[in-house]
């Protein structure tokens, strides 16, 4: 997918995504694995969204933030997985430059929102544990909506900045991307124009997107742990820790993979390892999130059982 411009230079108008170069049997196994993961991700996150929106017991700040995280996870996996499945079947696939940039921007927007919403959730847990008497006065419904709006606005703003700088790149060399989706690093590798502006933009964005949220989360949980250790009874400490343990696990998984791929990549890291790391935070983490929140939350498990009973009764009445 290349054309010639007036100076007889080759201009790339599309890319060829290699995906996972392996034997047919390995690709078939990976296809069914990713397909099952995608189905579980969609069903799990839709279940959480349905429970939070339909049950009054879940009309709290914590569950509201969890439902927003589920929306972000659905958008992220839908942006990545369907095209990846097509690439696995065909042992590669083509995508236009515009389509590639759009996919990258949707991915960037979802990841940016997740960074922000996880930070907000850590603040919510901090207020709940360290300042419980004023929790209802601080985390009002209007305030929570404003926080979520700021998170989405921040994610979209970063996406707009990325779209502008990335669309300014020229591609006139190889049109092969050794990846399963349009990520920034593979795009920069095949760009033939000056990438300094894009790199500068990424460094500037990483401050409000990664480093500041990380600092806020670390400080919040530092104070949370300090408060929990000050609780005299073992029962009180366990109960306080259980309210934030699920979020702490999700945050650890998300930031561990992000830092591993983009911030502190391993020296000599092969492309296959990079792809596997990318799979972790684009495909598997969105699936694990609802599982963690469901299995470690008795209220959600009870609501699921109640929903099953209602569905069973409805089906028996229909019969």
Write the layout of secondary structure elements.
Blueprint: E1 2-4, E2 10-12, E3 14-17, H1 24-54, H2 61-90, E4 93-96, H3 97-130, H4 135-138, H5 141-167, E5 176-177, H6 184-190, H7 196-229, H8 234-263, H9 271-295, H10 298-318
Parallel strand pairs: 3-5
Antiparallel strand pairs: 1-2, 3-4
Describe this structure in words.
- The protein has 319 residues and is mostly helical.
- 76% of the residues lie in helices and 5% in strands.
- The protein has 10 helices and 5 strands, in the order βββααβαααβααααα.
- The protein has helices at residues 24-54, 61-90, 97-130, 135-138, 141-167, 184-190, 196-229, 234-263, 271-295, 298-318; strands spanning 2-4, 10-12, 14-17, 93-96, 176-177.
- It has a 3-stranded mixed β-sheet with strand order 4-3-5.
- α1 packs parallel to α9.
- The protein is globular and about 65 Å long.
- Residues 2-8 have low confidence and may be disordered.
Helix content: over 70%
Low-confidence runs of at least 5 consecutive residues: 2-8
Per DSSP, the total helix count is: 10
What's the Cα radius of gyration?
A: 22 Å
Question: What structural class is derived from the secondary structure elements?
Answer: mainly alpha
Shape: globular
Specify the biggest β-sheet: 3 strands, mixed
Describe the structure using short key phrases.
319 residues, mainly alpha, 10 helices, 5 strands, globular
């Amino acid at each position: 997918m290349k054309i010639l411009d007036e100076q007889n230079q080759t201009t790339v108008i599309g890319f060829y995504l290699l995906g996972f170069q392996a034997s047919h049997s390995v690709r078939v196994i990976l296809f069914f694995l990713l397909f099952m993961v995608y189905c579980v991700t969609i069903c799990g996150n839709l279940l959480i969204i349905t429970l939070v929106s339909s049950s009054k017991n879940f009309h709290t700040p914590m569950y509201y933030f969890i439902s927003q995280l589920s929306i972000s996870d659905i958008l992220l996996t839908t942006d990545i997985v369907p095209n990846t499945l097509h690439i696995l079947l065909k042992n590669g696939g083509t995508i236009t430059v515009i389509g590639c940039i759009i996919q990258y921007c949707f991915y960037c927007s979802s990841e940016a929102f997740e960074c922000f919403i996880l930070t907000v959730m850590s603040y919510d847990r901090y207020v709940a544990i360290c300042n419980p008497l004023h929790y209802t006065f601080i985390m009002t419904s209007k305030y929570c909506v404003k926080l979520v709006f700021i998170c989405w606005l921040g994610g979209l703003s970063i996406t707009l900045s990325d779209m502008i700088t990335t669309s300014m790149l020229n591609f006139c060399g190889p049109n092969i991307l050794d990846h399963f989706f349009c990520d920034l690093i593979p795009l920069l590798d095949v760009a033939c124009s000056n990438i300094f502006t894009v790199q500068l933009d990424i460094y500037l964005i990483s401050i409000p997107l990664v480093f500041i949220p990380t600092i806020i989360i670390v400080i919040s949980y530092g104070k949370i742990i300090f408060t929990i250790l000050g609780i005299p009874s073992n029962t009180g400490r366990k109960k306080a820790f259980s309210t934030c343990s699920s979020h702490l696990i999700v945050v650890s998984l998300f930031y561990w993979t992000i830092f591993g791929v983009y911030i502190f990549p391993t020296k000599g890291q092969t492309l296959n390892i990079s792809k596997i790391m990318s799979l972790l935070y684009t495909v598997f983490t969105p699936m694990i999130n609802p599982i963690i929140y469901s299995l470690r939350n008795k209220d959600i498990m009870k609501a699921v059982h109640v929903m099953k009973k209602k569905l069973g009764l409805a089906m028996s009445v229909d019969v």
